[in-house]
Amino acid sequence: MSDKSILRVQNLKTYFDVHNERGEKAHLKAVDDVSFTIREGEILGVVGESGCGKSTLGRTVLRLEEKRGGTVMYRETDLFGLDHRELRAARKKLQMIFQDPSSSLNPRKKVSSLISQPLKIHRTGTPEEIQDRVDALMEEVGLNPLYRRRFPHQFSGGQRQRIGIARALALNPEFIVCDEAVSALDVSVQAQILNLLLDLQDRHRLTYMFISHDLSVVEFISSRILVMYLGKIVEIADKKDLMKNPLHPYTKALFAAYPDADPKNRKEDRMLVMGDVPSPINPPRGCHFHPRCPFAKPVCTEVYPGNTNAEPGHTVACHLYST
Hints:
It is a single chain. By secondary structure, the protein is α/β, with parallel strands linked by helices. Helices cover 30% and strands 24% of the residues. The chain has ten helices and twelve strands.
């Protein structure tokens, strides 16, 4: 893994215009003032509860959603400063693997058409070269090229996700956002897809942003982990540091809530949180987690905590660690 950054996100905000319970116009703050960096060749895991903004963050850094503020720098290029033609050229290096292969693949198109679509859009190669590329991609992701004339519904869920991966690889990208790429699959198939992604990363020197709610999956595949809560980043650290010593109360609660098959590993003093996730339309004042946090102090109800470097490479947004 290189020390050189491939993606730098600074103060990113993604808001959606909605109406609140009184029918008044309001903003749903899906991503709210988020900053982080992804280095070349690393896998950054993004975890959090459903609705915390993980998928919106992934879509925004690829400019599939429009930002309300902040910057997204791919190498030295501001993605939101590109016009339509420039963005189209940049997309060759930025791809996405979607959560549900059943909905992300057009059921009316054959596999060869689905995988070759990026190549045709960017006018890459002759028809014969494109067909050869499709066959090579299918073999690379573990599919028989003889199945190129089949439709998506003729494949299993794992095979459909392999088609989605082949399509994402078609233009030789550098950076791929994996949005819950294995959550819709059986556990045994998940392992196959995860190993495939790791093999492809090593073979093509890829960089992943891997979004998932499954801590075991993120622990297996990631090199660093970013924890989100209600549109904000609450903790970032190397995988080993975070799993060994989670600092933010929300991160501790996430780990405590994850089931362990061995009763001997169950801790009686594990941290539990009560209550529901607040609305992103009207988040709590101060730290968004304070209504559910057993360690909340008066300052938590008034001021959102800044980022604190609790340990080298381990950043947490919590007043418990601020000086």
